[in-house]
């Protein structure tokens, strides 16, 4: 992982991962390191959970060869995580029963992020989540 701070504009880090299950764990580690480096340790726990769910969804529910993940500092105590893949199908939160083992990832993202959504982009889609440390989840 190579990190450089932007000299102009917002601080941003981005990486591409092979679309394998290990990608979620690597993205989680990378985002935590970035936030610590930026002096935003208060966002680490939420960012780790959110990026894990978004990357895991992209790996599990698309046929993408790679998955992109980025984080941009959007304020003194806020950041935006974006995960991209080559599928045009937009994610929707599930409605799992109590004994289902899957289907809660986007519900977790919805609960943890200040806001989240998805949008089509050239060649696929972007799923994003806004994180804030000011208590306005």
What are the key terms here?
137 residues; alpha+beta; 5-stranded antiparallel β-sheet; 3 helices; 5 strands; 30% strand
Quick structural overview:
The protein is α+β, with helices and mostly antiparallel strands and 137 residues long.
Any overview of this molecule?
- By secondary structure, the protein is of the alpha+beta class.
- Helix content is 31%, strand content 30%.
- It contains three helices and five strands.
- The chain has a five-stranded antiparallel β-sheet, with helices on one face.
- The radius of gyration is 14 Å and the shape is globular.
- The model has no long low-confidence stretch (mean pLDDT 88).
Residues in helix, %: 25-40%
Strand content: 25-35%
**Going across the major beta sheet, what is the strand order?**
1-2-3-5-4
Major sheet description:
5 strands, antiparallel
Q: How far apart are the first and last residues' alpha carbons, in Å?
A: 30 Å
Mean pLDDT: 88
The global form is: globular
Element string (H = helix, E = strand): EHHEEHEE
Low-confidence stretches: none
Question: Tally the helices: what do you get?
Answer: 3
What is the tally of beta strands?
A: 5
Describe how the helices and strands are arranged.
Layout: E1 12-18, H1 22-37, H2 44-61, E2 66-75, E3 78-85, H3 105-112, E4 115-121, E5 124-132
Antiparallel strand pairs: 1-2, 2-3, 3-5, 4-5
């Amino acid at each position: 992982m190579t990190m450089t701070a932007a000299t102009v504009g917002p601080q941003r880090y981005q990486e591409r991962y092979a679309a394998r299950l290990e990608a979620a764990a690597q993205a989680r580690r990378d985002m935590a390191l970035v936030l610590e480096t930026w002096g935003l340790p208060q966002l680490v726990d939420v960012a780790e959970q959110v990026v894990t769910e978004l990357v895991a969804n992209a790996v599990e529910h698309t046929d993408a060869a790679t998955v992109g993940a980025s984080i941009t500092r959007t304020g003194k105590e806020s950041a935006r995580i974006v995960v991209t893949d080559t599928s045009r199908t937009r994610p929707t939160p599930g409605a799992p029963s109590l004994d289902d083992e899957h289907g809660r990832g986007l519900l977790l993202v919805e609960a943890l992020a200040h806001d989240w959504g998805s949008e089509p982009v050239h060649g696929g889609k972007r799923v994003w989540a806004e994180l804030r440390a000011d208590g306005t989840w």
